[in-house]
Each structure stands twice: as structure tokens, then as C-alpha cells.
Q: What sequence folds into this?
């Protein structure tokens, strides 16, 4: 299906979780045409899972690329070990320009393993990508988003993990109007060292954050658990609001872990995201970047959250939120209008 | 049956204690900032110490690769409870690429026959998230990434790792030992150094290992520059007194029909 030693190929590696396309893979699929376009290459999708032809067909049609299904019973849940080995064989087969994974920790594992074995450069959490003469110039966040690093490599193939929404702000190119091919390859039993046992979904049932019109979220700027009540007070201003937290605030125990927003927690896209004391680490932005309006309250005017925010209030949230509540109450006492 | 754990630790610029980043050349000014243990690695060391607390005959070695400044971080790891501190004195100027660090640590680990190698899921400064898996690839070890729980079966020489995924999901995997696991931060707060361990960390020598120079096989990734992200023009800073700012926001919320 893919031409042997076709040096213009860009491999787009997605994954399924129990028969469903993962959110990161869906997003990567949407970016495929633009990503391959940057390399002036042809995208070929690779999808791991078990019994997933239907999902692969739909991913292939949406992204406009042929898809190779790598099928194995031990790929029912993401399996970076088998993925790295199977993609290594595909790299051998088609000598691609680049291998692109969605950015998450297990994809970083697969990417790092693959890159080590094929002696290719590995660049993770790619925020933007340009090809300048013979070099690929990539921007990625470092120091929790406080700085943006620009790196370059001239070596092909390169192995990349792509941040969600990389090209979401640019116009979408046309997806070819034909049904690309889907080919299934059944993988041999080669890996006995990574043994998937199952999936724990306990925190995945509550969808209140996903459904809320307004999300009030706090980060380390909350300064302590004693201020967590301020979030509920602020959420009480709104008709349909829910409270969440960054990983930092959840790890510190200030906000329950089940309410974590970000790469490893909930992904939300409310009408209003009120970010209180959140610095804006890329892992957090991954979970809220599709919010329609972002208002950020932070004492640090250089906080990365302001690069995504529409409105900024440079203040300590523990002082500002009570004032906000007080003005709201006064407004309501006067009968409505602000 | 003895069980040995290697914890790999990185010293990173200390921003938590108020240090600010300044740019010098293509990277930050490393002379203008203090250094501390990578937050993810502190959680990793804690996970190792919990394993040692709950099983018999477990030893925990803490290793950091880099110039002499990393020795303070190694000492901190011993003060937290690591049995041995190891300084892998990688002789290189400037930043060490993840491949260089992975190669050096993999070579060192090969001489020691560790049952388990632990690394942080990523570093706070460079945020690659690949050094751990590369050590595993170099040693051909099974690997699990971003674990929030590790349950060890010492007689069975295996472990079960609960690896965090998106949306609150977690994948549970079993790995035979020797294995490598990268550790995600969790609710378990890294312990504060005890007085006895602090005293021990002061008198106990840090083992210094100078790795053999190895030609790098991987093509380099060159850092061109770092910049403070540009504020997007679409971000409007709300000015005025605290009350005026609150009123401006309430007006915005009201106009959109979000308020009760």
C-alpha cells in the first residue's frame, strides 16, 4: 500500500483505547494535511489497536490519508512498547521524512524508544514547525511555558510528538475527496515484557466539568487549601459553572484530583474559562485551550496563561475574587445592571 | 532476596524560591540562578523510598549526571533517605542532550545490575520526557511511563505500574524486573530530610563516576534561541482599581448572559 522506500512519507501514528480513537489521535488526524504539507510529504496514518478497522476507516477519511492498522490483542489499550517496535519496522520499510505522534507521556515513551533505535533526533511537545531550506525549525515550551525554545535539526527522519491544536488557528486545507485505503497488519507475538493488565476509569464518569458553561479553575496561585472556598464563591456567580484545578493545585491537595484539568485530567471547552492563579504550563493548556473566552487572574504579568487569555487581571486572586463577589452582590442588591 | 533501585535525578533551575530566568546566548543564564531537585524526581525518589519502607532488603541509589553543581542535589537525595549518592561526572560544557545523559546512565547501570531504574516523567526545565525511555531502550528494559503507583512483587521479580492517562484514566501494566518506570507527580508529598539523614548526607561521600567518552550516534538537535513568549495582541489587560476591574469583568459576564 505504501511505496517501498518512499522518502516523501510522513508517518502519523495514532492509537485507540478499547476500540475508540484517543483524543490526541483525533486531533493529530485533523492536523495531518497541514503537518505533511510543511514537510512537502505524503501522510500515511498508522493506528494501533485491536479489531479497529471501522475506527481506522473513519480516521482515514477525516484526515484524508491511507491508514495502516497495527492489530494485536495487547494493543487494546495503548502499548508504547509494541508501537515502537512495529513503527520501527515501518520506518525501515518506507524511510519517512518524519514520524509524528500526538503529545502525551506514553507517546513520548514510544517516540523516545523508536528514536533511540533508529538513531533519529526526537523532539517532543512541538508547538510550531517550519521548514527552512534543509532544516526543520521547531518551537516548544520549556520551563512550564515560561520560555519558548526554538530548535533545529537537519536530520531525516525525525521523531516528533505534536501538541494538540498545533495548526488550529490556521485555515484548514481541503481533505482529498476520495476514500484512502485501510490496510490491516496483524502483529506477531514478540513482546512479553510489557503486559497490559487493564484500565482504571474511576475518575472518568463525572462529566460536570465538560458540560459546564463556565469553568472556574485554580492553580498554585491559590496559595493554600484555605482559599479553595473562593472558587465555589466565584462559581456561584454563574448559571452553569463548575470548579476545577491545575495539576499543581491537585497534587498539593487543594483541589480534588478528580477535578484536574489538563493533559492527564479533564479536557474542557466552556464559553468562559476563569483561570485563577494558573501559570499556564503546556500540560494545563492542553486541557482548556479550546475554551471560547479565557479570563486569567494572576500576579505575574509574564505568566504563560496570558498568551492564551483574552482578558487579564494582574492581581492576587485571594484578594480579587472576594471583591468580585462583593461587587456582584451589590449589583444584584441594586436590581441587576452592572 | 535483595532488590536494588536506581533513582535518576536532575538538578534544575530553582524557580520555586523566587528565582527569575534571564536569557544568555541561546539558553538561560545558568550562572544567575540557584539549582534544586527536579520536582518530578523528588516524587520519584519518594516512590523509591516508600518501596524500601514497605519491603525487606531494598536499597536505593540516587544518581545525577552533570557538572559539579549537581552534587548538592545528590546530597539532598541522601538527606531524604537514599542509601548512596552517585555523581556521574559527564564532562561536557553547557547543556547535556537527553541522548547523552541516557547513554551515560545506561552504561553505568549496566555495571551495577539494578532490579529497577526510576526516573521522573520529565524535567521541569527542558520538559522532554524522553530520557527515561531512552535509558530503557539503551538497556533493552521493559518500560512504563508516567506511573502514579508502583506495586512491587519482590519474590515474583515483577512490578505493576498504574500509568496516568488523559481524562482521569489509568492503564495498569505489569513488567518483569529489571525494568524502568518513569514517575508522575502525585498526592504523596516528597518527604522532608530527617535530621539523622541530613547529618549522614554531610559525612557520607558521594561516589564519583567518570563515564568513558562515547561518540554520539544520534544527529544533534540544535537550540537556536529561547524567548519569553510574546503576549498575544488579543489579550486585553483590564486596568483600574480593584473595584473597577471587578466591574469591568462583571459587565463582560453579564453581557454574555453567563451570570445568575
A:
Amino acid at each position: 500500500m505504501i511505496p517501498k522506500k518512499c522518502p516523501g512519507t510522513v508517518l502519523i501514528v495514532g492509537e485507540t483505547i478499547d476500540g475508540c480513537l484517543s483524543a490526541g489521535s483525533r486531533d493529530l488526524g485533523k492536523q495531518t494535511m497541514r503537518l505533511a504539507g510543511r514537510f512537502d510529504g505524503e501522510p500515511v496514518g498508522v493506528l494501533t489497536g485491536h479489531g479497529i478497522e471501522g475506527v481506522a476507516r473513519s480516521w482515514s477519511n477525516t484526515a484524508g490519508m491511507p491508514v495502516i492498522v497495527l492489530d494485536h490483542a495487547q494493543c487494546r489499550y495503548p502499548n508504547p512498547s509494541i508501537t515502537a517496535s512495529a513503527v520501527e519496522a515501518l520506518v525501515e520499510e518506507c524511510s519517512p521524512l518524519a514520524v509524528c505522534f500526538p503529545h502525551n507521556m506514553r507517546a513520548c515513551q514510544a517516540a523516545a524508544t523508536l528514536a533511540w533505535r533508529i538513531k533519529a533526533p526526537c523532539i517532543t511537545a512541538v508547538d510550531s514547525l517550519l521548514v527552512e531550506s534543509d532544516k526543520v525549525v521547531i518551537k516548544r515550551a520549556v520551563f512550564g511555558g515560561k520560555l519558548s525554545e526554538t530548535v533545529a535539526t537537519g536530520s531525516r527522519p525525525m521523531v516528533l510528538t505534536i501538541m494538540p491544536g498545533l495548526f488550529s488557528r490556521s485555515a484548514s486545507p481541503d481533505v482529498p475527496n476520495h476514500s484512502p485505503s485501510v490496510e490491516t497488519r496483524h502483529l506477531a507475538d514478540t513482546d512479553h515484557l510489557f503486559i497490559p493488565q487493564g484500565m482504571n476509569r474511576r475518575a472518568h464518569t463525572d462529566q460536570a466539568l465538560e458540560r459546564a458553561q463556565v469553568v472556574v479553575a485554580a492553580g498554585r496561585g491559590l496559595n493554600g487549601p484555605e482559599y479553595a472556598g473562593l472558587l465555589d464563591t466565584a462559581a456561584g456567580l454563574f448559571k452553569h459553572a463548575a470548579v476545577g484545578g491545575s495539576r499543581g493545585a491537585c497534587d498539593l491537595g487543594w483541589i480534588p484530583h478528580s477535578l484536574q484539568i489538563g493533559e492527564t485530567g479533564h479536557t474542557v471547552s466552556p464559553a468562559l474559562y476563569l483561570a485563577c492563579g494558573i501559570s499556564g504550563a503546556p500540560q494545563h493548556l492542553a486541557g482548556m485551550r479550546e475554551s471560547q473566552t479565557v479570563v486569567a487572574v494572576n500576579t505575574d504579568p509574564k505568566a504563560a496563561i496570558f498568551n492564551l487569555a483574552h482578558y487579564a487581571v494582574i492581581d492576587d486572586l485571594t484578594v480579587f475574587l472576594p471583591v468580585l463577589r462583593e461587587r456582584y452582590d451589590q449589583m444584584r442588591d441594586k436590581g441587576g445592571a452592572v | 532476596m535483595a532488590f536494588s533501585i536506581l533513582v535518576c535525578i536532575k538538578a534544575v533551575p530553582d524557580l520555586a524560591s523566587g528565582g527569575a530566568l534571564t536569557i544568555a546566548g541561546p539558553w538561560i543564564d545558568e550562572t544567575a540562578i540557584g539549582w534544586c531537585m527536579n520536582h518530578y524526581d523528588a516524587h520519584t525518589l519518594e516512590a523509591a523510598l516508600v518501596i524500601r519502607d514497605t519491603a525487606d532488603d531494598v536499597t536505593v541509589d540516587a544518581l545525577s549526571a552533570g557538572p559539579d553543581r549537581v552534587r548538592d542535589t545528590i546530597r539532598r537525595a541522601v538527606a531524604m533517605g537514599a542509601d548512596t549518592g552517585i555523581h556521574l561526572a559527564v564532562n561536557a560544557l553547557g547543556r547535556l542532550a537527553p541522548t547523552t545523559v541516557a547513554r551515560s546512565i545506561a552504561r553505568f547501570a549496566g555495571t551495577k545490575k539494578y532490579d529497577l531504574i526510576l526516573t521522573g516523567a520529565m524535567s521541569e526545565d527542558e520538559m522532554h520526557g524522553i530520557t527515561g525511555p531512552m535509558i530503557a531502550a539503551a538497556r533493552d528494559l521493559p518500560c512504563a511511563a508516567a506511573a502514579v503507583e508502583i506495586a512491587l512483587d519482590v519474590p515474583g521479580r515483577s512490578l505493576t505500574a498504574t500509568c496516568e492517562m488523559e481524562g482521569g484514566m489509568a492503564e495498569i501494566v505489569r513488567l518483569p524486573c529489571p525494568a524502568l518506570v518513569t514517575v508522575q507527580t502525585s498526592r504523596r508529598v516528597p518527604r522532608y530530610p530527617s535530621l539523622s539523614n541530613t547529618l549522614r548526607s554531610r559525612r557520607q561521600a558521594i561516589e564519583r563516576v567518570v563515564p568513558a567518552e562515547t561518540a554520539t550516534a544520534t544527529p544533534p538537535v540544535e537550540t537556536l534561541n529561547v524567548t519569553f513568549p510574546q503576549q498575544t495582541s488579543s489579550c486585553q489587560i483590564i486596568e483600574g482599581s480593584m473595584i473597577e476591574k471587578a466591574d469591568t469583568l462583571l459587565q463582560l459576564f453579564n453581557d454574555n448572559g453567563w451570570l445568575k
Notes: The CA atoms of residues 264 and 292 of chain A lie 21 Å apart. Chain A touches chain B through 102 residues (CB under 8 Å). The radius of gyration of chain A is 22 Å.
